[in-house]
Design goal:
By secondary structure, the chain is α/β, with parallel strands linked by helices. The chain folds into two domains: about 5-190 and about 305-360, NAD(P)-binding Rossmann-like Domain (Rossmann fold), CATH 3.40.50; about 195-305, Dihydrodipicolinate Reductase, domain 2 (2-Layer Sandwich). The chain contains eleven helices and eleven strands. The strands form two sheets. The chain has a seven-stranded parallel sheet with strand order 3-2-1-4-5-6-11, with helices on both faces. Helix 1 links the parallel strand 1 (about 5-10) and strand 2. Helix 10 crosses helix 11. The chain is globular and about 65 Å long. The two termini are about 20 Å apart.
């Protein structure tokens, strides 16, 4: 089927897990490989993915070979495939804009960002010269200006855009129309992990409703030790993140909960957890005869591989859209892989829709 040429904005833990995973699945016998929702997506396997460009703003990554940059500080995700090749890719200076919160400078260098002072490269030029098919937006939560700059660059360069962070672009009608008019596919917004806090919470909320239990109130508290959680200590950067996670769960209920009865969002930063994410979910409802029912759950996952298990699906579906010359939002893929797609569906419905898209029975 040929290569899938991918550019990455933000060479952090998520990028590290994705790149390790590409090499892992290249080298592991498909019969023994675990962790993929689809080994083959329309003829494309993980081994067909090639990283052709990368952007970051940290001094320890910019100017470095991609192989070195994915393991540079402050990255702290688990190394499950350390034998990476010498990529012909040098990390370029990207857009800082609002990508680095002021409070990050108050923490030790090993766990925080050290932004460079050089101007950004010509992102559009790099995308064009690299022959990228698409760009994955992995910039930090709260980086709305930077995310939109990368979206604009994709429109100008004519490459697909996968928005893995919580800025509403694919789900914004004006942005969606821009991509449709240019004939460029877009998937977004805000990656939904393979078995993460949001999808577990969504499935449980739907279970309550399907089994006739009235959900009265619920919370989801998350904490971890990577730069994502450190960045989110600045609560002013969290409005889009909280909205994305909350509406994702609310969408599974016929009658959404009142705001005071649902709390979903990051809780705290615990450095020694590194890329391990801990989630606590509590749900209170009433079942048969109005008798109270309570559920409490703890989920512990390595955060970035959990994300990579889904982004590797989005990449290959994006390539199918490019091959088929489909522009605009990919509703089925977005619903399957993202917390805040243009249209919300149940996860079972979204999976069926994606299977139809892969088979060519559904346009988008």
């Amino acid at each position: 089927m040929g290569e899938i040429r991918v550019a990455i904005a933000g060479v952090g833990n998520c990028a590290s897990a994705l790149i390790q995973g590409i090499e892992y699945y290249k080298n592991v016998d498909p019969k023994e490989a675990v962790g993929l929702m689809h080994c083959d997506v329309g003829g494309y396997t993980p081994g067909d993915i090639k990283i052709v460009a990368a952007f970051d703003v940290d001094k320890r990554k910019v100017g470095k070979n991609l192989r070195e940059a994915v393991f540079a500080k402050p990255n702290c995700t688990k190394i499950f495939w350390g034998n990476l090749p010498e990529y012909p890719v040098t990390v370029q200076m990207g857009y800082i804009c609002d990508g680095v919160s002021q409070h990050m400078k108050d923490y030790p260098e090993d766990i925080t960002f050290i932004p460079g002072d050089e101007p950004p490269c010509d992102v559009v030029k790099v995308l064009k010269e690299s022959g990228a098919d698409m760009l994955i937006n992995y910039v930090p939560v709260g980086s709305e200006e930077a995310a939109k700059k990368y979206a604009e660059a994709c429109l100008e360069a004519g490459v697909g855009f996968i928005n893995a962070m919580p800025v509403f672009i694919a789900s914004d009608p004006e942005w969606a129309e821009k991509f449709k008019n240019k004939g460029i596919p877009i998937i977004g917004d805000d990656i939904k992990s393979q078995v993460g806090a949001t999808i577990v919470h969504r499935v449980l909320a739907k279970l309550f409703e399907n089994r006739g239990v009235k959900l009265d109130r619920t919370y989801q508290l998350n904490f971890g030790g990577n730069t994502d959680f450190l960045n989110m200590l600045n609560r002013s950067r969290l409005s889009s993140k909280k909205k994305s996670k909350t509406q994702s769960v609310q969408s599974q209920l016929a009658l959404p909960l009142d705001p005071e009865n649902i709390h979903i969002g990051p809780s705290d930063y615990v450095p020694w957890l590194k890329d391990n994410k801990i989630c606590y979910i509590r749900m209170e409802g009433r079942g048969f005869g109005g008798v109270p029912l309570e559920l409490e759950l703890k989920l512990s996952v390595e955060d970035s591989p959990n994300s990579a298990g889904v982004i590797i699906e989005a990449i290959r579906c994006m390539k199918l859209a490019l091959d088929r010359k489909i522009g605009g939002t990919l509703d089925s893929v977005s619903a399957y892989t993202m917390k805040s797609p243009p249209v919300q569906y149940t996860d079972d419905e979204a999976r069926v829709m994606v299977e139809e898209f892969i088979a060519g029975k559904r346009e988008r």
